[in-house]
Amino acid sequence: MSSVPVKILIVDDEEALRELLTVRLEHWGYECRAASHVGEAERLITTFEPDVVLSDVVMPGVTGLDLLRRLRAAGRGRQPVVLMTAHGSIDTAVEAMKQGAVDFLTKPLDNDKLRAVLEDVTEELNSRRRAQALEESIERDGPLARLVGRSAPMMELRRLVELVASSDAAALITGESGTGKEVVARAIHDLSDRRDGPWVAVNAAAIPESLIESELFGHERGAFTGAIRARAGCFEQANGGTLFLDELAEMPISLQPKLLRILESGRVRRLGGGQEIPFNVRVLAATNQNPMAALQEGQLREDLFYRLNVFEIAVPPLRERKDDLPLLAQHFVREFNEKHGAEVYGLRDWTLDVLRAYRWPGNVRELRNLVERAVIVARSGWLEPGHFPAYMREAVQQQEPVVVVPVGTPAAEAERQLILKTLEHVGYNKAEAARRLQLDVKTVRNKLRAFGEEG
User: Fold this and answer.
1) pLDDT for 55-86, tens place per residue?
2) Cys-Cys crosslink for 56: which of 12, 197, 337, 393, Cβ 3.0 to 4.6 Å?
3) Which range has the worst mean pLDDT, 194-198, 259-263, 271-275?
4) Backbone phi, then psi, for 316, in 5-degree steps?
5) Cα(154)–Cα(132) distance, rounded to whole angstroms?
6) Do residues 162 and 191 touch, judged by C-beta distance below 8 A?
7) Tens of pLDDT along 345-384?
8) Residue 95, class by beta-carbon neighbours within 10 Å (0-12 exposed, 13-18 middle, 19+ buried)?
9) Which residues have a Cβ under 8 Å from the Cβ of 374 and sit 6 or more positions away?
């Protein structure tokens, strides 16, 4: 049961049943209110704000199905509604589920079935609360919202970013491809005194060698074939703001002395121009290579490296900060819900198990792409393991523990060990244990009671 009591509104025109259900559900740990008709129920929904509505279908005047429709029309589509009736039929049950009821119970109520349904609904509510808490955590970050994560490596990274942003010094950001080096650089810019100035990002590896000098320094009209008009380079464009040089070690070695001279003089001369133009730019650079290895292999000049490496910021790979996966995944779910018009709540706990078992060679960029894919496939509800590629699910299967049962062990004891070990492995989530064992949740609960392990 959740530490925050789940609030249930009971709607039934039979007073005796209302009282019986109230006593029973409060004994199970729920907080209850009861209404004798739909009008009273609608008032309590506003004042009591229940998490779950447990309503009879057949009542004088307005029915439970009508209440369900009104809740959906009022935008309470995520509030679980469980319907119950003494006049159950397949048609009524089908209609209830089509209207959005989470379950349909027949009277007289089966206590085990009722409890199982409410426990499943509680688990769903708790998952939604966790997803909401993650989103609220992201929103509280303000300027650091770009740096999603609460793991120890990310907290150290945030501290260093704030320190670097408080100065105007150059910085070299290192890390594997996809870790978010540009995100770190942008966070520094947004936190700095230059936040209102321009932000210009250049990827040295993406520009042909014949054009990179013009891209960085600019050119005058007629400076080379095709230069039909004058163009300001990146240093001029970033004047008063920040210039981000990505993949620094991929820059042609012949260009690096010119870049160093410009950084030290604070002046740039366009190709074909005779005048030096002053600029005021903070330079941040990044590389996915080991800087020391790049120096030794002659890909990076030592003098340029030391000019830019006033601060070195190492961005950790995702495999070293897997505690951040729930927050990162929820961040991307929110982003792609908005982009694609989807209504995904978040990721199931067992889906997060799949993500944690994977090594993430593509780092945060790979996670972002896979969450976008999953949101497009799912469109609504929760992201399940099946919404992610099969090769990720195989990683979990390879890490799952094995239950060894000696030959001659009684079948009942072997069954007990398998169920308890599976339950332990999934964090005592009965619904997930039942799914993995291919059993009904009610069957798992009954087995646990028989084992004396229900607690």
Assistant:
1) 999 898 888 999 998 888 877 656 899 999 88
2) 12
3) 271-275
4) -70, 145
5) 21
6) yes
7) 999 988 998 999 899 999 999 999 999 999 999 999 999 9
8) middle
9) 344, 383, 387, 388
Instruction: Provide the sign of the torsion angle of the four alpha carbons 414, 419, 423, 425, taken in this order.
Output: positive
CA angle 241, 181, 238 (to 5 degrees): 15
Q: How many residues are given for the chain?
A: 455
CA 170, CA 201: separation in Å to the nearest integer? Answer: 15
Token representation of residue 312: 């070195």
Tokens found for residue 193? 């005194």
The answer to whether the beta carbons of residues 371 and 333 sit under 8 Å apart is: yes
Sign of the four-CA dihedral 320, 337, 183, 367:
positive
What is the three-class DSSP state of 440? Answer: coil
If one counts every other C-beta atom within 10 angstroms of the C-beta of residue 244, the result is 24
Find out whether 312 and 163 touch, Cβ atoms under 8 Å: no
Report residue 213 CA to chain centroid gap: 40
- For residue 392, what are its two tokens? 């990720």
Contact between 246 and 204 under an 8 Å Cβ cutoff? The reply is yes
DSSP 41-98: HHHHHHHT--SEEEEES--SSS-HHHHHHHHHHTT-TTS-EEEEESS--HHHHHHHHH
By C-alpha distance, which of 312, 323, 285 is closest to 155? Answer: 323
Alpha-carbon 444 to chain mean position: 31
Tokens 């209102």 — which residue?
A: 196
205 DSSP assignment: G
Q: How many CB atoms lie within 10 A of CB 402?
A: 5
> In DSSP terms, which residues pair with 173 in a beta bridge?
286, 313
Cα–Cα dist 455/415, whole Å: 18
- DSSP category for residue 110: P
CA distances to 416, 421, 445, 447, 455 from 452, rounded to whole Å, are: 11, 15, 10, 9, 8
What CA–CA distance (Å, rounded) separates 133 from 147? 17
Asked if 104 contacts 55 with a C-beta cutoff of 8 angstroms, the reply is no
CA–CA gap between residue 214 and residue 368 (Å, rounded): 33
Which three-class secondary structure state does DSSP give residue 8?
Answer: strand
Residues 86, 58 contacting (CB under 8 angstroms): yes
Tokens found for residue 382: 């929760």
Q: With H, G, I as helix, E, B as strand and everything else as coil, classify residue 3.
A: coil
Nearest to 260, CA basis, from 309, 303, 322, 311 = 303
Residue 331, both tokens: 């961040």
| pTM score of the predicted model | 0.79
